[in-house]
Design goal:
This protein is of the alpha/beta class. The chain has a single domain, classed as Rossmann fold (3-Layer(aba) Sandwich). It is 36% helix and 12% strand. The chain has a four-stranded parallel beta sheet. The two termini are 20 Å apart.
């Protein structure tokens, strides 16, 4: 028995036994895929808050080579202490975000001395535009929601 990846239904006891998991819990293959763009303090905290309650498969992405991979490893290695089963990967490649159901953009440019708020807005609008252009082809808009 298999459920569509975007099925909003919880599993009955019989279906759960057939799939080998607990009732009312989605198997990992049916978790929502959530991408967090940006591995700064806000991105780190967001990824941790999403992975601890097992809200979905978390993809942490950043432009700094090795940073999201290291953070994902830290989160995975902390899981036995806190008591959660991690489903997280770090990457620098937008191809790894394909199939995302939700994308949280935490990436941004900090305000610099002498920079106006409009300058900051323009800089960050460019970042958001670039991010959307890069992940959208692999994660088209879904007509159904969870």
């Amino acid at each position: 028995m298999s459920l569509p990846r975007n099925s909003p239904e919880l599993l009955s006891a019989g279906a759960a036994l057939q799939l080998g998991c607990a009732p009312s819990v989605r198997p990992k293959s049916h978790l929502m895929r959530i991408t967090v763009v940006g591995s700064g303090f806000v991105g780190q905290a967001t990824a941790m808050r999403l992975v601890q309650p097992n809200l979905g498969e978390i993809v942490l992405i950043d432009i700094i080579e090795g940073l999201p991979q290291g953070l994902a490893l830290d989160i995975r290695e902390s899981s036995p202490i806190v008591g959660f089963e991690p489903t997280i990967v770090g990457t620098n490649d937008y191809a790894d975000t394909a199939g995302s159901d939700v994308v949280v953009i935490t990436a941004g440019f900090p305000r610099q001395p002498g920079m106006s708020r409009m300058d900051l807005l323009e800089k960050n609008a460019g970042i958001v535009r670039s991010v959307v252009e890069r992940f959208a082809p692999g994660s088209p808009t879904r007509s159904s929601s969870w």
